[in-house]
């Protein structure tokens, strides 16, 4: 029953986080500078609201679970979700709703399969050229691919395939291998757009891998330190409150101070581009891992000087030192998550926006999986008959956690260079993104 409940929670959260960003952003008119600025503000405050919920979870709910029992914590969370449902439906008469029209995954799969099968079919060059020119172009998305009610946005349509990713142009033929695989030029171009944003998506895995350390090794570090705040003893499980608080402070500052200043300096609508914002987040993650390594060196030095290397007693060093790495990682999360959500929404085709914004959460999941893989590889490579693995020992004081953090710093630096390779080559297609 417990695992069934966890799977249902994952299903529900996936549905909410996957659709809410695109639904909220579609309420603004992207044909006007004012609407695009409001949309950018929405993404900032979406992350802010996520942090508010996280603050409630890691403080009040954790305290209730520790003092009253887990059933109280789960009960309060369930009640909160139930209360949110009528509030959401209360505004349903004012929403701009996108008319659903098929699955974007079906379109992507159809184009890829059609391109592969058609490339294997024997056809004359003249037929291939003719098919690209005569294949029917789709109607505007307001009629075919789903529209926003009461919204006159018309997405760009294509008469012939572009020259980028030319292998996908083979999906456009007059006589496909199967009738079900008949693709329009618009569908092919939409799939090309999604493929072009995938390298940016992949480059964020490493950042989320660093974020995974907040809920694992960083909590273990703090558990060995002095967690008293006056007469109050802070539970180690509540330590993620630091990045949450930092995000809640930085999000309004970013939206109301940093971005207006950047707009005056750069004379651009967005202040800084979406890719620049993501890049800032990646740089902050590098700094965070370097800070984490230095803090761990200090923590172990205090343990050695105090003669507590083999003891489980709290070390005479405040857990506020851990807040430094939380500060940089929290800032990195704000810049990257909000930047990714807006980047995917503005660059993706209208019919694939929900799918594209969901990539932000898929990146988070991949980062946690990658963290598990890296930890396993590090332990297997560094452990032998003479040496213990870096991340193994009688207690955390015998780990070589500082080496692991330096490794993460190096990997994050390489990942940033990889990101720069793709970012400088990317050409925006949306209004205001690079103005």
Automatic annotation (TrEMBL):
The keyword Membrane applies. GO terms for molecular function: transmembrane transporter activity. It comes from the Eukaryota. It is a multi-pass membrane protein. Belongs to the major facilitator superfamily. Proton-dependent oligopeptide transporter (POT/PTR) (TC 2.A.17) family. Belongs to the major facilitator superfamily. Phosphate:H(+) symporter (TC 2.A.1.9) family. PANTHER family: OLIGOPEPTIDE TRANSPORTER-RELATED. This is NRT1 PTR FAMILY. It comes from Olea europaea subsp. europaea.
């Amino acid at each position: 029953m417990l695992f069934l409940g966890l799977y249902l929670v994952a299903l529900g959260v996936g549905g909410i986080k996957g659709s809410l960003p695109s639904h909220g952003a579609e309420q603004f008119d992207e044909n006007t500078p004012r609407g695009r600025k409001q949309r950018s503000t929405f993404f900032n405050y979406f992350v802010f609201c996520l942090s508010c919920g996280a603050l409630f979870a890691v403080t009040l709910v954790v305290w209730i679970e520790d003092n009253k029992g887990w059933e109280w914590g789960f009960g309060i969370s369930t009640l909160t979700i139930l209360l949110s449902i009528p509030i959401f439906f209360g505004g349903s008469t004012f929403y701009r709703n996108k008319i659903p029209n098929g699955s974007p995954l079906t379109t992507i799969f159809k184009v890829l399969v059609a391109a592969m099968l058609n490339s294997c079919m024997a056809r004359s060059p003249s037929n291939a050229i003719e098919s690209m020119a005569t294949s029917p172009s789709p109607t505007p998305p307001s009629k075919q691919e789903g529209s926003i009610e009461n919204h006159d946005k018309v997405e760009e349509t294509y008469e012939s395939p572009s020259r980028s990713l030319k292998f996908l142009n083979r999906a456009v033929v007059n006589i496909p291998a199967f009738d079900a695989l008949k693709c329009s030029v618009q569908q092919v171009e939409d799939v090309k757009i999604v493929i072009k944003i995938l390298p940016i998506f992949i480059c964020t895995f490493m950042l989320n891998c660093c974020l995974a350390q907040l809920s694992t090794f960083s909590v273990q570090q703090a558990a060995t330190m002095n967690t008293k705040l006056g007469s109050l003893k802070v539970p180690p499980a509540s330590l993620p409150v630091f990045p949450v608080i930092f995000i809640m402070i930085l999000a309004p500052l970013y939206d109301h101070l940093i971005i207006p200043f950047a707009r005056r300096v750069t004379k651009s609508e967005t202040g800084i581009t979406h890719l620049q914002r993501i890049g800032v987040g990646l740089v902050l993650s590098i700094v965070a891992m370097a800070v984490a390594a230095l803090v761990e060196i200090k923590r172990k030095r205090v343990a050695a000087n105090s003669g507590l290397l083999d003891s489980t007693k709290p070390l005479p060093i405040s857990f506020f030192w851990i807040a430094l790495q939380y500060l940089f990682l929290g800032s990195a999360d704000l810049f990257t998550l909000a930047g990714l959500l807006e980047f995917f929404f503005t660059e993706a085709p209208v019919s694939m926006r929900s799918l594209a914004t969901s990539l932000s959460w898929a990146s988070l999941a991949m980062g946690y999986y990658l963290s598990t893989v890296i930890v396993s590889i590090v332990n297997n490579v560094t452990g032998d008959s003479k040496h213990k693995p870096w991340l193994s020992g009688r207690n955390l004081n015998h780990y070589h956690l500082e080496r692991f953090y330096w490794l993460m710093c190096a990997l994050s630096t390489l990942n940033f260079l990889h990101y720069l390779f793709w970012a400088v080559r990317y050409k925006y297609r949306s209004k205001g993104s690079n103005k």
